[in-house]
Amino acid sequence: MLGKKVGIVGPYKLTMQIIKNEGTVGLFRGLVPTLVREMPGYFVFFGGYEGTREWLTNPGEKKEDIGLFKTMLAGAVGGLSFWAFTYPADVAKSRIQVSNLEDNMVTTLMKISRTEGIGALYNGLAPTLVRTVPATATLFVTYEYSKKVAALFLQGCLT
Questions:
Q1: What's the domain range around 39?
Q2: What is the tens place of the pLDDT at every residue in 27-44?
Q3: 72 assigned to some structural domain
Q4: In a domain? residue 16
Q5: Maximum pairwise Cα distance, the chain
Q6: Residues 30, 27: Cα–Cα separation, whole Å
């Protein structure tokens, strides 16, 4: 094995390999598990964000005016909520995609739990949570302040 050259497979070549080996349906492997993760996950994500914004809002203040730090904190809570809630589904989704499993999400979750223990559904959660804090804090600050800049810009254009 030493000395064997490994070729770089770009997106086009990989897509062609998948189509050749699995047909067009291979391009959608893992779509259902992804949707199973994303649909309730983003409910929790935005619920965590908006709920935290509401909680951090002082009486008589609008959510939009809570400031940079509180917006970042609310974004971090949204991200932490998402991953804490969806991580087992993400583990199962990844196994289905990478291992080319034909099992559905529930069967995969049950097999992992039975053979490796419940803890296996949370392997890698800690680094994911550490990563999501700055990522989602930045995401929501950028979103909220971009809305403010766009509103000011439009207001300037209309006057």
A1: 30-158
A2: 887 788 888 889 999 999
A3: yes
A4: no
A5: 70
A6: 9
Residue 147 sits in a domain whose CATH number is 1.50.40.10
Does residue 94 contact residue 29 with C-beta atoms inside 8 Å? no
Q: Where does residue 113 rank: exposed (0-12), middle (13-18), buried (19+ CB within 10 A)?
A: middle
Residue type, 64: E
Residue-by-residue DSSP string for 106-143? HHHHHHHHHHH-GGGGGTTHHHHHHHHHHHHHHHHHHH
Number of domains present in the structure of the chain: 1
Q: Are 90 and 112 in contact (CB under 8 A)?
A: no
Do the Cβ atoms of 91 and 119 come closer than 8 Å? no
pLDDT, mean of residues 49-56 = 97
Residue 135: inside a domain, yes or no? yes
